[in-house]
Amino acid sequence: YFGRQCSANAVAGICKAHVLHPNLWTSLNVDECLMAGNKLFEKSYELLPPSYSNVIYLRPDELHSCVMFPENEIKFQVQINDEYYGTSMNNIVTVNHGIVNYCIDDAILCFLHNFNYGILTCQIQCVAILKIGMEYFLFDSHKRGKNGLPDCENGTAVLMSFNDINNLVLHLKNLFKCTSCLPTNTVQCNTCQFTIVPIFISNVTNISVNEQIHSSLNKNEGTKRMSQLELARNAKKIKNNNKKVKKNNDIQSNIQKQKVMLEAIPDSTVNLVNKIYDLRIRSTETRYARSEEMKAKNVQQIYDRYQTNAEVREIKGQQKKVKYQTDEAFRELHSSKMRQKYHDDELYHDKLSSRMREKYQTDEFYHDKLSSRMREKYQTDVDYHNKVLENVKNSYHTLQGAKRKSNYQNMYQSSKKTKICLHEKFNEQKKEMPTVICTCCAQLFFKKSTVSEFSLKIDQTLSIPDLCTYRHHLGENESGNVCSTCANQLKKGKVPHFAAKNGLVFDPLPQELTGLTTLEERLVSARIPFMQIRELGYQKQLGLKGNCVNVPIDINKTVTCLPRMDSEDDTLLVQLMRRMSDKTPYAFENVRPEKVFNAARYLVNTDLYKQHNITLNESWLQQFHDETNNSATDLISTSNTDESIEQADETDDLTDQQETLLTSGFVADSGVKIAPGEGNMPLSLTLDEDMDVLAFPTVYGGKQRIFKVKYTPVEMAKAEARHHDRRVATNIP
């Protein structure tokens, strides 16, 4: 059963602590607990019904109710109804289906407030926790190091003492963390369940020497699983007890012989012997008084014999009781000594107080006697009367302070839990994005900001399909969503202010304007808004720094600066400058000249560009085509001439062709630097009404929209930024 009897060992440790204070334990006492626990587990396992044949570990309530020690037989009870249950890494107390789920701190505090002995089970490991007086003890039979934590190589069973209950709780938390990380453990640390079961000692029976011998012999004959070490220790104890009995018998026989001899000796000889005996006693007493080592050794022997031998304790108790009743001086001395010990020794103070409290609660005669005596003393003794009043006041203030502290802690835990819930709710809501399209204004909203069309109660004269432009993209039985702003106006029988039917829609872009890059768009736009867009903070949001300067430009200047390329996919590096004297370009990028020409040709044919007298020099384009064709013809004739020259004189160089190729390569590599807005007067953003359409052809397509209602610039910006067509939100100059 090695490694399976930790519950039995814990019960044995509690029973041993009941008869012998843990501060007086030695390593032999720890071994006795382990031996007794092993016997208890074997006996309990043998008494189990056949249905428990596959059970490996036993709970405390499944153990036999009697623990056998060499000197005592102790019976105990397990109060399974008073069990405390909880999670090891929980921080607050919760209630699920009427069951209180404690955290480890509150469970230990509540348990040790109501009980003195208990067994704490976490997963498959059991330890004993004890409260004796103002001290707390932990008995752990597993392999532990000097610090009480797991040590699989050199570990032993440990008995640990704590002066503060918080230190006990801290140690248990560290123990749970260590045991949850073992390789054999499949339970995560934050889900370790624990239980605490109270243990009550019901009866303690002392075993005489002959019964010990007989019991040991019977057990040695009846079991084969007892270790050799236990057999040797029991045999040694029996042998020592026999020696003591024999020695006592020899001493008694010698005393009887000496008495007989003394009766036959004359009186003078007897007096001489008495004098010699007195001198020997005096010398021994003198040596005892002078030798501190001898005194300490003798006191320790007497103390050990008194603690371990129940018979000696009983005899000494009877002698002291008789002397206390007959000798007045001894009674007064003993009373003063006990009073002093009661005030000085905290352990004795707690032990006596608990014993008196228990007697006061159980013994009715003692209860009435003490109550009447205290009442009489309270009425006659002024000092005692004042002392009782002071204690009552202090108790009242202490109780009120404890209540306030408890209320504050409960309030703090509640607020802490509320903060955690709000934080988790905020993180969940932060993941949500505005993805729902309002079928009336075609803008994006959060799900919680919209309502279903079928839930609206509006005037029958208003037709939702006519007002809601994007309703036609849904099926007949599908329900669209309407934002709260449009829903409120529809309920009042009004057309929503931001309805897409009022003109807040974008026309499809022609093929010439699709796919234009940022710089290509700037080259064909009639306005360039010079501004600085920078990242703000660690969240990488974009913001405007400084002023926005609206500069009109001439498309002819920008387009004619670009050379025609052989293919539409050929690119050219273009540097857009504010002024030609600047060292750093406002923007630079590889552009497609052919794409720019096609976009400019389309834009100048729109009504808005014609209204602003923006034209493109088509004669320059035709001239560029003619020059390109002539260059190709010259190149063919030059190559034929070069071939004839090469046949005549192979040493001639093709200087002209090399210069032409170098020039072409230089233009393609170094690019073109232009400043189309240099020398032009900036226009006011408020006075230039068509500025947004002329500056962003890839958004508006060069066409001015017609609105049925009047919108402010703020309303326009809000509607375009939230529009489900993201061309405005993604177009950053």
TrEMBL record:
It comes from the Eukaryota. Keywords: Integrin. Pfam families: DUF6570. Residues 492-621 form the DUF6570 domain. GO terms for biological process: integrin-mediated signaling pathway. InterPro entries: DUF6570. This is Integrin alpha-PS5. The lineage of its organism: Eukaryota, Metazoa, Ecdysozoa, Arthropoda, Hexapoda.
